[in-house]
UniProtKB/TrEMBL annotation:
This is Gluconate transporter. Belongs to the GntP permease family. PANTHER family: GNT FAMILY GLUCONATE TRANSPORTER, HIGH-AFFINITY GLUCONATE TRANSPORTER. The chain crosses the membrane at residues 5-21, 27-47, 59-77, 97-130, 137-155, 175-195, 226-246, 258-279, 337-362, 374-393, 413-437. One of its GO terms (molecular function) is gluconate transmembrane transporter activity. Pfam families: GntP_permease. Keywords: Cell membrane, Membrane, Transmembrane, Transmembrane helix, Transport. It is found in: Cell membrane. Its main location: membrane.
Length: 438
């Protein structure tokens, strides 16, 4: 229990530094991470290595995606495409059902799209609705983010569920089918239903996605707006489906793998948008590049905060915290699916990364699954649900949401952390019910 006490103390210290002492979050992360490394016994000469690796691994996969996504989002907002998309959605679903429209969009987009790509792509759409119709940002946006989160934790081809399928020798198709069945009620409860309790939360989202209202006759065509804004989704969907319907090899496989990389997808989408929403609408290259420059300035702090969360996660990983916690509870007498969920949930709370939590839990549970007599597909989903439990200050997703929506830590926990917890618990309940029938 000493390890758990250290982790808990470090998390409390981080919260106090940011909320009470008003430290810059990135600086607070560095201070707490170095202190945690010393306390957990990482050698002095290895702590800076953990810091550098945490920053490098986190930003290496995110900095280009967040940067390109911010540029695309800024152009979608400034060109009037977001305004046009919002008008079409409002006419189709009406203001009363707009949450459900965004939730369905988030689920469809989230299946082929990596979470961070989906987040930075969909946030401008959320904010355009918020600014145009004067609706509460958290109330409107959380259902879509709940849908993105569920697909990230439950459904292949996302990295964690895909890796779990392989580790636990489950069936990819069955896991996806069961996962969709679990995802729908989880999203509904954690999204529109839970969001009804959050209307009072005040939020002033990032100005980068707030654009002036453009006269209707100057807006881009609806087809252009939807196609350009959703081009990353279209590209990823196509490159995901192609290998499922035909066998690729040699140059064709290399080309598909190259185009399906999120960085290439976002770059191609931005280049297309530069023409369709920029040059095609009468803007000069210089004016378009100025928009992109402003977008990068607006997300610079987000990148630093996300990097800080990566440092703390890496320190916990390098110190062996996740393995220690998992080993201490793996022999507890309980239902195997509940045990898998619990191991992943505890590691998630302590380490922050859903992927690390899921893969560590699978490494503990995997060797003993044959003795457990449990459905491997359901175990994948149980661990995936556990890995989403209570995202907080050591999770980069927590900080992306907080900074994009410009919320206090208290309101971020009240909305984001509780949404993730509801998703996780609903997933567990669904898995236990499904275990009765399959």
């Amino acid at each position: 229990m000493t390890t758990l006490l250290i982790v808990f103390t470090c998390i409390i210290a981080l919260v106090l530094l940011i909320s009470w002492a008003k430290f810059n979050p990135f600086l607070a992360f560095l201070i707490v991470s170095i202190g945690a490394g010393l306390w957990l016994g990482i050698p002095l000469n290895k702590i800076t290595t953990s810091v550098q690796k945490g920053i490098g691994d986190t930003l290496g996969s995110l900095v280009v995606i967040i940067g390109l996504g911010a540029m695309l989002g800024k152009l979608v907002a400034e060109s009037g495409a977001a305004q046009k998309i919002t008008q079409v959605l409002m006419r189709t679903f009406g203001e009363k059902h707009l949450q459900w429209a965004l939730m369905v969009t988030g689920f469809v987009v989230g299946i082929p799209l990596y979470y961070n790509v989906g987040f930075v792509l969909m946030v401008p759409l959320i904010f355009s609705v918020v600014y145009q119709y004067k609706l509460p940002a958290v109330y409107i946006g959380l259902p879509m983010l709940a849908a993105l989160s569920v697909t990230h934790g439950f459904l292949p081809p996302h990295p964690s569920p895909t890796a779990l399928v392989s580790q636990l020798k489950a069936n990819m198709g069955l896991t996806l089918m069961y996962g969709i069945m679990l995802a729908i009620p989880a999203i509904i409860v954690a999204g529109p239903l839970f969001a009804k309790t959050l209307k009072h939360i005040r939020s002033e989202p990032l100005q980068t996605f707030q654009s002036k209202v453009i006269p209707a006759e100057q807006l881009p065509h609806a087809g252009n707006s939807f196609l350009t804004a959703l081009l990353p989704v279209i590209l990823l969907t196509i490159t995901t489906i192609i290998p499922l319907v035909t066998t690729l090899s040699g140059p064709s496989k290399q080309a598909n793998d190259f185009i399906s990389d999120p960085v290439i997808v976002m770059l191609l989408s931005l280049l297309v948008a530069t023409f369709t929403l920029g040059i095609h609408t009468g803007r000069s290259i210089k004016a378009i590049m100025d928009i992109y420059g402003d977008a990068i300035k607006d997300v610079a702090l987000i990148l630093l905060v996300v990097a800080g969360a990566g440092v703390l996660k890496q320190v916990f990983t390098d110190s062996g915290v996740s393995t220690t916690i998992a080993d201490s509870i793996k022999d507890w007498p309980m239902h195997p699916l509940l045990l898998g969920w619990l191991i992943a949930a505890v590691i998630r709370i302590c380490v922050g990364s859903a992927t690390v939590a899921g893969l560590t839990a699978a490494g503990i549970i995997g060797p003993i699954i044959p003795q457990m007599h449990v459905n491997a597909n359901l175990m994948v989903l149980s661990i995936g649900a556990g890995s989403l439990f209570f995202s907080h200050v050591n999770d980069s997703g927590f900080w992306m949401y907080k900074e994009y929506f410009n919320l206090s830590i208290r309101d971020t926990i009240r909305s984001w952390s509780m949404m993730e917890t509801i998703v996780s618990v609903m997933g567990l309940i669904g898995v236990l019910i499904m275990d009765i029938f399959v």
